[in-house]
Amino acid sequence: MIKTLQKKFVVSSMIAITGLIVLLLGAINGVNMVIVQKDISRTLMMISDRESRERERSINPADSPAMERDQTPLPFGNRKSEEDIWMASNFFVVHLDESGEAVYVDVSRTSTITREEAAILAGEIKETSKASGRIRQYRYQITEMRNAQGTLMVFLDTSDEMLSYLRVLLLSASIGIVCWCLMLLSVFLLSKRAIRPIAENMEKQKQFVTNAVHEIKTPLAIIQSNTEAMELYQGENKWSRNIKEQTERLSGLMQHLLLLSRMDEGVEQVHATNICFSDLLKESVQSFMPLMEARHLVVHAHIPPDIQIHADQSQMEQLCSILLDNAVKYTDENGQIQIDLIQQGKHMQCTIQNTCRNLPDVSPDKLFDRFFRSDEARTQKSGGYGIGLSVAKAIVQANQGTIHAAYIKPDAICFTVWI
Q1: Could you tell me if residue 284 is inside a domain?
Q2: Domain total in the chain
Q3: Where are the alpha helices (DSSP H) in 132-158?
Q4: CA-CA distance, 173 to 180, in Å (whole number)?
Q5: Over 80: is that where the pLDDT of 261 sits?
Q6: 337, 292, 299, 324: which is closest to 392 by C-alpha?
Q7: 290-299 long-range contacts, Cβ below 8 Å, gap at least 24?
Q8: Distance CA 50, CA 75 (A)
């Protein structure tokens, strides 16, 4: 139980830490990508505007005034001016006439592409009819010429910017992984200290139950023996019968509580052997047949022979007794009980289904809670104390199996065991 609690603490903590790290790294890289894209767009617009004016001035010198070089630093703390950015950028320019032919190609500002390749690339972009976009490692901008015919295409090489973005992504991811591993180590080392108060309280509660059961067993034995002695002298009466019935009921409850406590503490040992569950289940069904016949219950049992499992035989006998007893108690008179045993590879599936006129208004998993009562009055009358299914679940889990409950509409409930 303590190891399970520690595992859940570590898993829950690491889920929260992982979400925080992913959110933080995502925000950092998202902001970085937006800034990089805005810088690229601003640089491309500046270069496109500058090149279009220079191209128009070269074609029509009289109509275009001389362009002054802007030395004003750009905003957002960038100390570089437009002139510095233009000088440092890696780009090429293609001027297309109205028919789409390249009449001017300038690749003097880049060494990664030839004039022929630049013209072919411009022709591909012209067919897409997009004013801006991305092709290969280039961002492009198309500008309509004002004092000259045709369009001017500026292609900006963004390899360095994207490499910088990827560098930040890989660096942040590496730091995030290292931090995650360090946090996992820290959480694991601190988990025992964090759950120590809870673990101590749980151990005290388990020990209290164990001690209380042992202390109550002696008074119960004395009450039962005194009642039997009183009946020898005064004869049996309704009061003595009530005392004996409630004493037996309380004794059964103490035995179940002791079993649960021992399983929680890990004291109860599982002596697993190869047993024939088919024979064990048939014997349990036969032992309950008188009760079933007294309540006029119809039993449909499909139990194939020689189905073997590896489990504790005494615990499996107790499991069958609990599930069949629960089915008999909660099946309405003249109702039906369906028992099926199936071999699935190396696993055994046992299903016990019974009709129940009024299904509980809670989740089926709630039925395994300790002292849960779906019908208080009926449970008291039938002799149950709301802990049998909890014991059944503990037995199945101790034998490396699982048990589930399900409602079969409109009036049936089904318990399924896999071992």
Answers
A1: yes
A2: 1
A3: none
A4: 10
A5: no
A6: 324
A7: 291/328, 292/328, 292/337, 295/328, 295/331, 295/333, 295/334, 296/333, 296/334, 297/328, 297/331, 297/333, 297/334, 297/335, 297/336, 297/337, 298/334, 298/335, 298/336, 298/337, 299/336, 299/337, 299/339
A8: 18
For the full predicted model, state whether its pTM sits above 0.85. Answer: no
Are the C-beta atoms of 63 and 147 separated by less than 8 Å?
yes
**Average of per-residue pLDDT across 234-245:** 83
CATH number at residue 381: 3.30.565.10
129 CB-contact burial (10 Å; exposed 0-12 / middle 13-18 / buried 19+): exposed
Task: Quote the domain boundaries for residue 374.
Answer: 272-418
Q: How far is CA 91 from CA 104, 158, 343, in A?
A: 14, 9, 72
- Average pLDDT on 181-208 reads 82
Cα→Cα distances 64→55, 61, 143, Å: 10, 5, 16
- CB 77: neighbour CB atoms within 10 A? 6
38-61 average pLDDT score: 85
